[in-house]
Amino acid sequence: MSWIKRRETKTVWVGKVPIGSSHPIAVQSMTSTFTEDVPTTVAQIKELEKVGCEIVRVAVPSIDAARALRKIKEKVNIPLIADIHFDYKLALLSIEEGADCIRINPGNIGELWKVKEIVNLAGQKGISIRIGVNSGSLPKELLKKYGYPVPKALAEAALNYMKLFEDWGFTNMKFSLKGSDVKTTVIANELFAESSPYPLHIGITEAGTLLSGAVKSAVGIGILLYKGIGDTLRVSLTANPKEEVKVAYKILKALNLRERGVEVISCPTCGRCLVNVEELAKEVEERLEHIKKPLKVAVMGCAVNGPGEAKFADVGIAGAGGYFILFVKGKVIGKLSQEEALDRLVEEVEKLAGEEVGGV
Ligand code: SF4
Question: What are the DSSP E strand ranges found in 203-360?
């Protein structure tokens, strides 16, 4: 049970995945492939599915990309969101081609009648729309009013779109408000959340490379989640999108909001360490990334703290001179050579998880 009380929202569906306060916070990512390259895009989505991605967004910058959506959808198991900028016709085509949700920023679509056409078709097909409001594309009148993309301007833009869409009879929507920094994003989302019943997609835009992006995202997303805000999230990283999904689960887990997969506990190593813990811990993480069941695995360098930590994990290994001691559920299973240790540890974790090697 989480210690965080989530803001109450409506439920909106992206394909088979419900988004809203009565459902788990859904983890999203975005492909980095050319969408029209169907085999490569499908392969990347499959990899994302394997690490727990629940919804995937793909860029649709061309007619070819929009036409690829149907073929991609046939081959993957998670819902697809079409990411549209500027061209309303690409949004219409994406809806026709089976997108489960359309992500638009009405501020860069142009005249309102174009936005309305998208809304009408989404309504007819029963799919949801994510309305994205960004610092970079605020309506001119709001920029004039506030002089700068301050949080109030972002929240006001999103609330205006909300009213407009409701006036058009459309309520199947969720929102994202992204400023260029953590503070703007957090305050904008808080302001919007006070006045809207719709779910929020949260994230820190252009957060950076793996380490800096993960830290910035953990801080920004973490603050919002702690305040009960956020129904689906994407961690944006300049890295393999699989890393986005892994970081997302780590953030959710740190707040007891969701649990998935193996948590590897490893020691920082010190002058007592005679084995390569860093390499081993990385290999363990990679080889166990397909496991869904929440399990604790310890990789410890030596006998000082090693056996203690390893004992409290579901499966653990601790270096002891030239060999490793293997623990399962606190019991010593045996002494292993470095070569044997990794395979044996993976085998024991898979046994506990009840999952096959390479399973999803
Ligand atoms: S477990 Fe051993 S090797 Fe690792 S930090 Fe502690 S004392 Fe050093």
Answer: 232-234, 262-266, 295-300, 315-320, 323-328, 331-336
The answer to whether residue 335 sits within a structural domain is: yes
pLDDT band at 353 (very low <50, low <70, confident <90, very high): very high
Predicted confidence at residue 1, as pLDDT, reads 54
| Beta carbons within 8 Å of 8's beta carbon, 6+ residues apart | 21, 197
Evaluate if residue 68 carries a pLDDT over 50. Answer: yes
Compute the C-alpha angle 346/45/11, nearest 5°. Answer: 105
State which H helix or E strand residue 342 sits in.
Answer: helix 338-353
* Nearest atom (ligand 1) to Cα of 270: 8
Structural domain of 72: 12-254
**272 Cα–ligand 1 center, Å:** 6
Ligand 1: distance of its center to the CA of 297 in Å? 16
Q: What is the pLDDT of residue 322?
A: 77
**Same structural domain, 171 and 223:** yes
295-312 tens-digit pLDDT: 999 999 887 776 777 778
- Structure confidence by residue, pLDDT tens digits, 89-143: 999 999 999 999 999 999 899 999 999 999 999 999 999 999 999 988 888 899 9
Counting ligand 1 atoms within 8 A of each CB, the residue from 305, 317, 324 with the most, and so the one to mutate, is: 305
The domain that holds 339 is classified in CATH as 3.30.413.10
Is residue 281 within 6 Å of ligand 1 at its C-beta? no
At residue 107, the pLDDT reads 87
Dihedral Cα 285, 291, 292, 296, nearest 10 deg: -50
Instruction: Determine the atom of ligand 1 nearest the C-alpha atom of 267.
Output: 4
Centre of ligand 1 from the C-alpha of residue 281, in Å? 14
In a domain, 2, yes or no: no
CB of 305 shorter than 6 A to ligand 1: yes
Q: Is the CB of 272 under 6 A from ligand 1?
A: yes
CATH number, residue 33: 3.20.20.20
